[in-house]
Amino acid sequence: MRITRHFSQLWEKRDPTAGQLGTYFFFALLRLVLVFVPQLGYIHPDEFFQSVEVMTGDHFRLEHTRSWEFNNSMPVRSITLPWVLMRVPWSFYEFLALYVRDWWQVELINSYAFLVFPRLIYTLISYSNDWCLYRICRLYGLRHEIRLLALGSSWVLLVFGTRTFSNTLELAMCAWLLCLVAECMLKTNTIVYKKEYLEEKYDKAASISERVKIWKLKNSLPAHNLQHLFAMSSICVAGVFNRPTFLLFGAPMVFFWLLRGMGTRSVSFRDFNLRIGLFCLCALPALLLFIFCDSLYYKHLTVGELHMLQVGIDNFVFTPWNFIKYNLDPSHTATHGVHPCYVHLLVNVPMLFNILGLAALVAFAQLLLRFFCAEYQLLPRFQSIVSLMSGAIFVPLFFLSLINHQEPRFLLPLTFPLLLLHAPKLITGFSATYPFQTQHPMLRWLYDNVLCSRASAPHLLRIWYVCNVVFTVFFGFIHQAGIFPLAQRMAHVVATKPMATHVHLLTSHTYSLPLHLVNVPSSRELHFNPQTHQRYRRQRDFYLYEYGGLPMNSLLDKVKLIAGNCELKRNGATRLRYKMYLAIPAPLSDELHEALQRSNASSYLHFELLSVFYPHLSTEAFPRLRGRHPCDVDAPHWTHDDLRGTCDVEQPPTLSFAYLSRQFSSFVHQFGLALYEIDVRRKQTPALTHTIDVNTTPLPESTA
Predict the structure, then answer these.
(1) pLDDT tier at 659, thresholds 50, 70, 90
(2) Domain end residue (candidates: 258, 292, 318)
(3) Is residue 196 part of a domain?
(4) What is the predicted pLDDT for the residue at 652?
(5) Rounded Cα–Cα distance for residues 394 and 357 (Å)
(6) Same domain (yes/no): 122, 223
(7) Is the pLDDT of residue 412 over 80?
(8) Which of 58, 77, 429, 664 lies deepest, with the highest CB count within 10 Å?
(9) Which domain holds residue 78?
């Protein structure tokens, strides 16, 4: 009992910051583990098609999709950063894979590596956000434990931080820039204060020897005017070429850097102008490097033209300007989706940062209220860390809200300043003191029951954890999660198919399939045979047809058309055999059955359900509460009653446990991506004229 009492006393006296740091390290390790698991959730096609699809396809000479952003005539994406971050590491990885293949007969170049290795690089970069946050907290004497805990447990870092979005790089670059600006602001404020103090002492000095001593002390102060100038300018150039929206995020940070010490006797407008000029001058090397590399890649500039010195202004491409020109046209951005101006403020910020996002919006509204009420003494000092972080949050948020296309990932760079300012509220509550200037019964009730530490502190951290776990599971493991297993299955089909056989895959109501994950050698590139030392070109044998949200009747027409063309080639002189597959969300299986019933396609098309990849949720085809189990659609017993059979799910509702459990099972099993193999009936059997056979046994090696 004495030992138990001793341990309980130690537990009560434990340092809570140690527990917060331990929890942070758990989430930091979890971020790395989630890369290798891997996360199958598919957030947005830009995760692949803005970098990985092109870089991996180019390096390994694979079939890949080059989106319109990489059009040589008017490219809007810089290739320099993706080339450095992927092509160079892929070269080392390929060199390692060659020796592993020779020594241990293990193939490291596969679909899993194409998914995980680029994510690993971006995840390692994401850890720089943690270091920058810790660095600023140490510089300004802030509590770093709860801030690191909030950053590490945020689903923004656990999901977006491990993905190959350009927004993930933008988040890291904003963190680097904020760290440098915060360090420069602190150093300038410290040195300016010391300098003015010494000047005041110098003026009051009574003797020459004392003045000489003070003068020497003042001259020994380190320089601060141009600190981190080259690093900051280079980060800004790289950020703009990565995503030109970096202009909106970096502008307030650079503005605070330029204004350091302004309003004191030591810093004048001459220093301000000098900083601007030298900042632009130091940005030139990085600017020229990016323009040169992009111009070479997009073939606007060639080595022959450089050798002959036949170079003009048309030989150079400036991708950020092309990006800005494209997005300044509202009709262009409207093609990607039109959103109201309040979506960022009322939807995306709460979704990304949940309770802390709401706290940030309320805190900013309070600052605006104090400003308009002329309560200037209650506002933070302009050249303070609070003003810097507030500007880094709300200036870009305002301008991004003016654009008619608004996605949550566009706000990723707000994560760093928002958590640095508001993460302590997870343990202190919304407000430790009464925040209002006037005493009113309603305001007092609001403070006592919602805002004060006693009322809000016990719940905020729990709400934070629950929201982040939900979003991590949904976007990391459920949303469009069947795409990668589908790519792995197709890679296996292509690798094991007979010679002179084409593979056709049709998809509908899903995101685009990254072709490089199928691991099919490119038919447009020359390949080298190390045995014969000859170059050759492969014939194309994999065809992908993506039909978005096409209605099922129209999709069935596409199936008929493609099957007809394949049959012509099969019966022609080339005698090309083929395999045809259809991948649709499981909730659409009954629509497929109904479409086949309405048409005569069932007389010559045979759909066989090969597998259902779980989990998979497509927002274009939500599961239905009274939908069919995908394996019940076109069930085999219907072959005996000429489609007059009924499914248990469709029986009249009863309160029996069997009915409810069947409904629940059918609903859960709709969270999948169904893969059908389509065969053409070449010899029609009278008894099976209207029959659709479905093999309900999925293949174990390819199910998710």
Answers:
(1) low
(2) 318
(3) yes
(4) 53
(5) 12
(6) no
(7) yes
(8) 77
(9) 1-164
How high is the pLDDT of residue 628?
59
Q: Which residues fall within 8 angstroms of residue 668, CB to CB, at 6 or more apart? A: none
For residues 136 and 13, membership in a common domain is answered with yes
> Is the per-residue pLDDT at 44 higher than 90?
yes
pLDDT range class, residue 693, cuts 50, 70, 90 = very low
Do both 111 and 199 map to the same domain? no
Map 389-426 to HEC letters. Answer: HHHHHHHHHHHHCCCCCCCHHHHHHHHHHHHHHHCCHH
Domain-embedded: residue 187: yes
User: Over the Cα atoms of the chain, what is R_g?
Assistant: 31
> Taking the chain, what is the end-to-end CA distance rounded to the nearest angstrom?
51
In this predicted structure, what is the pLDDT of residue 634? 47
Q: List beta partners, residue 675.
A: 583, 611
What is the rounded distance in angstroms from the CA atom of residue 44 to the CA atom of residue 352?
Answer: 15
> Is 596 domain-assigned?
yes
Residues 6+ away with beta carbon under 8 Å from 637: 645
Residue where a domain terminates, one of 147, 164, 181: 164
The token duo for 493 is: 């089909």
- Say if residue 84 is in the same domain as residue 207: no
Query: Does residue 581 share a domain with residue 500?
Result: yes
Alpha-carbon gap, residue 407 to 437, rounded angstroms? 37
Which tokens go with 157?
């870092």
What are 612-647's pLDDT values in tens digits?
999 999 988 888 776 655 655 444 443 443 433 344
Residue 281 CA to residue 286 CA, distance in Å, equals 10
Question: 189 near 383, Cβ under 8 Å?
Answer: yes
Supply the DSSP string of 473-511, one letter for each residue.
Answer: HIIIIIBTTTHHHHHHHHHHHHHHSPTTEEEEEEE-SSP
* CA–CA dist 253, 184 (Å, integer): 11
Task: Tell whether 11 and 152 lie within a shared domain.
Answer: yes
What's 245-281 look like in SS3? CHHHHHHHHHHHHHCCCCCCCCCCHHHHHHHHHHHHH
Kindly state whether residues 107 and 47 are assigned to the same domain. yes
Q: How far apart are CA 24 and CA 127, in angstroms?
A: 12
Structure tokens that stand for 442 in this block: 């309603």
Which SS3 state, helix, strand or coil, does residue 199 take? helix
Largest Cα separation within the chain, whole Å, is 119
Q: d(Cα 470, Cα 408) in Å, to the nearest integer?
A: 16
Neighbours of 446 (CB within 10 A): 16
Distance CA 226, CA 239 (A): 20
> What sign has the CA pseudo-torsion 150, 387, 184, 178?
positive
Q: What confidence tens digit (pLDDT) does each residue in 115-140 have? A: 999 999 999 999 999 999 999 999 99
Phi first, then psi: what are they for 45, rounded to 5°?
-60, -25
Distance from C-alpha of 249 to C-alpha of 171, rounded to nearest angstrom: 10
Q: What are phi and psi of 349, to 5 degrees?
A: -65, -50
Burial class (CB in 10 A: 0-12, 13-18, 19+), 436: middle
Whether residue 259 lies inside any domain: the answer is yes
Q: Which of the four pLDDT bands, split at 50, 70 and 90, describes residue 365?
A: confident
Same domain (yes/no): 551, 569: yes
Containing 585, the helix (H) or strand (E) segment is strand 577-585
pLDDT of 369 above 90:
no
* Residue 111 confidence (pLDDT): 94
**What amino acid is encoded at 314 in this protein?**
D
Give the residue among 280, 312, 246, 317 at the shortest CA–CA distance from 79. Answer: 317
How many CA atoms within 13 Å lie on the side-chain side of 367?
A: 15
Residues 6+ apart with CB under 8 A from 316: 291, 292, 295, 300, 301
Residues 218 and 202: beta-carbon distance below 8 Å: yes
Q: What are φ and ψ of residue 78, in 5° steps?
A: -70, 140
Contact call for residues 478 and 617 (beta carbons, < 8 A): yes
Of 351, 388, 371, 20, give the one whose Cα is nearest residue 159. Answer: 351
Number of domains, the chain = 3
